[in-house]
Design goal:
Layout lengths: L1 E3 L2 H15 L3 E6 L5 H13 L2 E6 L9 H5 L5 H11 L3 E3 L3 H4 L18 H4 L3 H16 L3 E5 L3 H13 L5 E5 L19 H7 L1 H12 L6 H12 L5 E9 L15 E10 L2 E10 L1
Parallel strand pairs: 1-4, 2-3, 2-5, 3-4, 5-6
Antiparallel strand pairs: 7-8, 8-9
Helix pairs in contact: 7-8, 10-11
């Protein structure tokens, strides 16, 4: 496994692979603190492509909370060991100064996707995500890029950005990977205490309870209220939102219709740690 820190070195290396060897390139952008969810993306890329590239970069532009950025877990050696074991071919570990040199950002029309749900509570977050993913796509120029379904809204925005920027890149959505308790895997789980980790498992348990209750004709607001009320009965937990929406357009769904597909999305604070999760429902 090769590790590159410099943007120009990486561009030269990958350009030679594409031109001289006609290799297909799969790419997974990460902020490190890797877990089995990340590794599942890497393994999928290894199956589908000749070369798998992973970036590890804690992107300051997508943190609207300075303390969240400062406390984000970093362990590069552990990340490299996991990536090597998973069959990754190339790891890109850039500095912020290098990756953003002479790059202002990518301005786009989000069609309102950056103002709802996650965007409402994390102003500026999605512009930061778009900036780094656009920049990484420029540098890596992959054939396919892999993202987890847990960040459902981010996935929709990246698909839109890829289309608007005319990148010839296939965006591959991969299923959520969960702890044995059902808690969606996240780098932020490392910051949970033992008790918080146990309590946070109730997020997915409640999603399943509601999924089993839902039926055609139901008013989704009733189920959102149930989720919020039940979560806030648990020590040190507070719901930020619980919404039902169309998986593609993210338009809010207020009533369950027959032959529809809906995604139920939640954000919950567990102490000072913010966790998100979702579940796709088919009727």
């Amino acid at each position: 496994m090769k590790v590159i820190h410099n943007v120009s070195d990486k561009q030269i290396y990958l350009r030679e692979l594409r031109i001289t060897s006609n290799k297909t390139i799969g790419f997974i952008p990460t902020m490190g603190a890797l877990h089995d969810g990340h590794i599942s993306l890497v393994e999928q890329s290894v199956k589908n492509n000749d070369i798998t590239v992973v970036s590890v970069f804690v992107n300051p532009r997508q943190f609207n909370d300075k303390s969240d950025f400062e406390n984000y877990p970093v362990n590069h050696q552990r990340d490299l060991d996991l990536l090597d074991k998973a069959g990754c071919n190339l790891v890109f570990l850039p500095s912020a100064d290098d990756i953003y040199k002479n790059f202002v950002g990518f301005n786009m029309d989000f069609n309102g996707l950056d103002k709802i749900y996650e965007g409402e509570f994390r102003p500026g977050h999605f512009q930061g995500v778009v900036d780094i993913v656009y920049r990484l796509f420029e540098i890596v120029n992959p054939h396919k890029a892999y993202f987890g379904q847990k960040d459902f809204q981010q996935l929709a925005i990246i698909k839109l950005m890829t289309k608007l920027a005319n990148f010839d890149i296939e965006i591959v959505s991969c299923p959520i990977v969960r702890e044995k308790s059902g808690l969606a895997m996240s780098s932020r789980n490392l910051r949970l205490s033992q008790e918080q980790f146990k309590n946070a498992a109730n997020i997915y348990k409640l999603l399943i309870v509601i999924a089993n209750k839902l039926k055609v004709g139901d008013d989704t607001d009733k189920h959102s209220k149930y989720f919020i009320d039940e979560i806030e009965k648990i020590s040190d937990m507070k719901a930020e939102y619980c919404v039902f929406c169309n998986p593609e357009s993210l338009v809010s769904v207020k009533k369950i219709n027959k032959n529809s597909e809906i995604i139920m999305c939640v954000a919950v604070w567990c102490g000072k740690i913010r966790l998100i999760d979702n579940i796709i429902l088919v009727f």
